[in-house]
Amino acid sequence: MKNKLILFNPRSAQAKHRIPNSILQVGASIYGTHDFAFVDGNLEEDPWSKILALFQTGEYTYFCSTVMPGPQLKQAIPFTKNIKEEFPDCITIWGGYFASNQYQVCIEAPFVDYIVNGPGDHAFPALLSALEDGRLSDIKTIKNLIYQDNTGSIVQTPKEALLDQNSLPQLPYTYLNQFYKLDNYLSKTFLGAKTFSYHSSLGCPFTCSFCAVVPIFEGRWKAKSAETVYNDVRYFKDNYQIDAIEFHDNNFFTSRKRVVEFSKLIENDNITWWGEGRIDTINKYSDEDLHLMKKAGCKMIFLGAETGNDDILKQMNKGGTQTGQGIKDFAKRLYPIGIIPEFSFVLGMPAETPEKVMAQIKWDINFIKEIKEINPDAEIIIYLYSPVATEGSELYEQIQNAGFSFPKKLEDWLDPAWENFDLRKNPLTPWLTPAMVDKIKNFETVLNGYYPTASDFRIKGFKKNLLRTISKARYKTGFYKYPYEIKVLHKIWKYRQPEVQGFYSE
Question: What is the reported pTM?
Answer without folding.
Answer: 0.89
